[in-house]
Every structure is written in C-alpha cells, then in structure tokens.
Amino acid sequence: MPVPWEALIPFGLLTTMFAAAGTLFNTSQRLQNQGKPVRYGLDAWENMMMDRDKRLTGHLRGQRSDPIAPEEFATNSAWYTERTG
Amino acid sequence: MSVYHDPSKADKPYTDPTPLPANIPKVQEIGATSAPLKSAAFFLGAYCKDYNEDFMLCKAESRDPGHCLKEGRRVTRCATELITKLRENCLKEFESHWACLENNNQEYYMCRKPERTLNKCVFEKLGLTKTIPGSAAGKPQIHEVEKPIFKAVQK
C-alpha cells in the first residue's frame, strides 16, 4: 500500500509558512534594532534610558562608552519647545 | 498652542534660549549610554559611594532641581573619572561585557562569563569589587554562585 504523500503536502506548507513568517518577523525586528534582539519588558526607567541613548547616539539601540558627551547632548532634550500661540 | 521642533532635524545649530546662570559651574555630562553604564554600575557604586550618598541624602531633603546641583556635579565628575579609568585599564573586558548585555535585554544573569573576566580585571587594576547591597549575609552573592538556576542556555 503506497504512502499517501499528497496528504502530507498541506502539513509541509503549514510548517513552511509558519517558519517563513517567524523568520521574516524576527529579521524585520532585528533590522530595526541594529542587528540585536529586541528589548522586552521595558519599564519607564528603561524607556527613559533608551531615549537618552537616542539623544547621545541617534538611535534607540545605539551604544557608546565615551566618558564625555558630545556638545549637542546639552541641548537636544525634548524639553525645548517653541510657543507659537 | 505650541509646536515641537525636533532638534535632530534642525538645519542650524541650536542655541539654548534659557541657559543656566553664569555663576553655576559647568560640568561635562557622561557620554556613556545605558549598556556601558549598566556594566559599570556596581563599580560606580563602589568607587563613588560617598558622592552618591551625599546626592541621595540631599535629594531626600528637597526634590527641587536647583537644590542639589553641587552634589550632582560631584557625582557626574566621579562617574566620568571611573568610566575613563575603566576604559584605560580594562577596555576589552568592559566592551565585551556591555556588548553581551546589549544582546540579552541588558540582563546580568545572561552574561556571567564576560562579567567574571571584567570583575577580575577591575579588581586587579582598580581594586574594586562588585558587592550587591542587601544580599543575604551568609550565602554567596548571585554573581558568584557556581550553579545558578536562572542562567543562559549555552554554557
């Protein structure tokens, strides 16, 4: 009795599609995070630190370990807004 | 109504419309981002303990931002000094530890191996040890436990 291999095609398709979707999602997340795994479980402190990283390096996940900040750091905080009204 | 102009998209360099008064001394802010700071956190605690405690006690008196500027400047200068020393003496171990932290959601328990090399280097060159305040007195600290329960999957 030959094996009904045509019936296994949908299973193969499902597995492939799951794998493809998962890989695509992971790749897109990593591309948005400079090749690093995405940060999870972020609280207010972590979000504040990531915003500070963005002010220092230009990207939320950018890192640098220089002891002195660049001069733009003194004035690139979001506190500076302009009133037009 | 107010409009927010994103400073990073401006074409002219930004000049501060409300600078601090001239009698307040200037201090250069720390340029390290979150992962190197997290890596150096316990050494900052050990090296700058006095200045940190002064600042915390001062803040406990009053939350007014102008009240603790002097203590804050001292904390910043001490931290900048320590980061400079860390980079001079233990640059490779430091960089590898915070790179590992960045790849692991900045969790300490995932990066014990680079942490051990960093702790050893810092102890030899700078004489600082990592002690976790509030850990139980008799038992080994969590970063010194040989077989931890929460650990990285690969050895």
UniProtKB/TrEMBL annotation, chain A:
Keywords: Electron transport, Membrane, Mitochondrion, Mitochondrion inner membrane, Respiratory chain, Transmembrane, Transmembrane helix, Transport. The keyword Mitochondrion applies. It is found in: Mitochondrion inner membrane. GO terms for cellular component: mitochondrial inner membrane. It holds the Pfam family MWFE. Belongs to the complex I NDUFA1 subunit family. This is NADH dehydrogenase [ubiquinone] 1 alpha subcomplex subunit 1.
UniProtKB/TrEMBL annotation, chain B:
It is found in: Mitochondrion inner membrane. Keywords: Disulfide bond, Electron transport, Membrane, Mitochondrion, Mitochondrion inner membrane, Repeat, Respiratory chain, Transport. Residues 1-14 have a biased composition (Basic and acidic residues). Residues 1-22 are annotated as: Disordered. InterPro entries: NDUFA8 (IPR016680). GO terms for biological process: mitochondrial electron transport, NADH to ubiquinone. Accessory subunit of the mitochondrial membrane respiratory chain NADH dehydrogenase (Complex I), that is believed not to be involved in catalysis. Complex I functions in the transfer of electrons from NADH to the respiratory chain. The immediate electron acceptor for the enzyme is believed to be ubiquinone. This is NADH-ubiquinone oxidoreductase.
